[in-house]
Design brief:
heterodimer, A: mainly alpha, 13 helices, 0% strand, globular, disordered C terminus, B: mainly alpha
Chain lengths: 323, 66
């Protein structure tokens, strides 16, 4: 019996170590293969996504390691493994609620408290959904990601295995909710699956509900960036009245008035500021820029078209002869 | 830019409700223990005592394996 438990623990440990990066990489490959980015990944956005994926890890990993190995033993020297008696099921339930509800609040407050918005804006400036933008965050938002420290504390107190199990399930749900692969679509399409869809879309984040949160417009029946804050559980949005369920996907994503702030400003604001005039990340930019989404979106699309027409198409290059 | 009053009130109400939700699984666990008569924390104390006993025997060897 002990050998079996050890074996399961080892599987969970390995999944925690290699599972998440593999999942992101695998879904990313699928997205690119199916052409889901549709030329929506310009150079500046690529820099934002890649730098946000790599650089914060260089800061966060040592910080969490210091917190877990030095700070917690110093503050709670007698409390190591004090809750190791808690049965797995209950440990899982306690951590799932504590971790995800804390993240719900962290996320919601960055949308509802104006001075916090600029720390979360980077995650919303992408005009596409997918693995490329899933880790896109300002470094301050990542450093203060509250539930990292909560989970580390719970591991120290003896709830390591349930904490890792929650992390695996949560990573899978949130990654799939950001993906441009609409895995939930069949649940809405086939009548027999609709009761399952009803439960799923209220319990966990799905591409439809989370894509609505990343929409460029709101209150139009599909997009709803004023709500749908849940990460693993969507239930928090249902309970607190911040949910919007439409079973549809927005036509446009991102921030309607976004004009491509430099990757340095998006990753490191307020240390680096944006050179885009009127941007929320510019030196004298507003805390929250309020504009009519439809007008701003039309301008964004027009700018994009103009840029396309200026760039010579690939077919204009001389065709090399086979002879 | 100031936060709207309606939003502020909703946040306050929801935070209070959240505190109950945080406690809910912990309360449910102890209610289950109460109903079933389980006392898993006692089992842990016994295990620690057993380990201590073994350790004290070993410590007589002054850390040597001989």
């Amino acid at each position: 019996m002990e050998a079996t438990i050890d074996f399961i623990k080892r599987i969970i440990d390995n999944l925690n170590g290699i599972g998440f990066p593999f999942l992101v990489f695998f879904i990313g490959i699928l997205e690119v293969t199916f052409g889901l980015y549709k030329n929506k990944w310009p150079k500046n956005e690529r820099w934002v996504d890649i730098s946000c994926f790599i650089l914060p890890k260089l800061v966060i990993q040592p910080l969490v390691a210091y917190y877990s190995l030095h700070f917690l033993p110093l503050i709670f020297s007698e409390a190591k493994n004090v809750f190791s008696w808690v049965p797995f099921f209950w440990g899982f339930a306690i951590i799932a609620v504590a971790d995800d509800l804390t993240q719900y609040w962290y996320h919601r407050l960055h949308h509802q408290i104006p001075w916090l918005w600029r720390f979360h804006r980077t995650h919303h400036s992408a005009s596409y959904m997918g693995m490329a933008m899933a880790s896109r965050q300002n470094i301050i938002y990542t450093i203060f990601f509250s539930q990292i420290y909560l989970t580390a504390a719970l591991v120290y107190l003896g709830l390591g295995i349930p904490a890792i199990a929650v992390r695996i399930i949560k990573s899978t749900i949130t990654t799939l909710a950001h993906s441009s692969i609409p895995w939930d679509k069949p649940f809405y399409k086939y009548r027999a699956l609709r009761p399952i869809a009803w439960v799923l879309e209220r319990l966990i984040s799905t591409p439809a509900t989370h894509h609505a949160h990343h929409a460029a417009t709101t209150d139009d029946g599909v997009g709803y960036y004023k709500g749908n804050f849940g990460n693993m559980f969507f239930l928090w949005d249902v309970i607190f009245g911040t949910a919007h369920i439409s079973r549809q996907y927005p036509a446009a994503y991102g921030i309607s008035h976004y004009e491509g702030d430099q990757w340095t400003a998006q990753l490191l604001w307020p240390i680096f500021k944006s050179k885009v005039e009127g941007s929320e990340l510019a030196p004298n930019g507003p805390e929250v820029r309020i504009e009519d989404d439809y007008e701003a979106l039309a301008r964004r699309e027009a700018n994009r078209e103009r840029k396309k027409s200026v760039t010579p198409p690939l077919t204009a290059a001389p065709v090399l002869s086979n002879n | 830019m100031k936060i709207e009053k309606a939003t502020k009130d909703q946040i306050t109400r929801n935070v209070i409700l959240s505190l109950f939700i945080y406690i809910l699984p912990i309360a449910a666990m102890f209610i289950t223990f109460l109903i079933t008569g389980q006392r898993p924390w006692e089992k842990k104390t016994h295990q620690i005592e057993n380990i201590k006993t073994i350790t004290s025997k070993n410590s007589q060897n002054n850390g040597s394996n001989d």
